[in-house]
Amino acid sequence: MAAPRDNVTLLFKLYCLAVMTLMAAVYTIALRYTRTSDKELYFSTTAVCITEVIKLLLSVGILAK
Fold this sequence. Notes:
Blueprint: H1 10-36, H2 44-64
């Protein structure tokens, strides 16, 4: 079995952390803003599902890089 590669730089790790942190912050702010408006409401489970799909796509994109 081959040894794991440790060629991931610190800058790339910080980039991944920043992207995921920003995603969580934007999600929280956007969800709170849209749920307090007087517009037509939506199911919160739908928002969570869409967010998880976006996180999956971002994670796969970061891993592919």
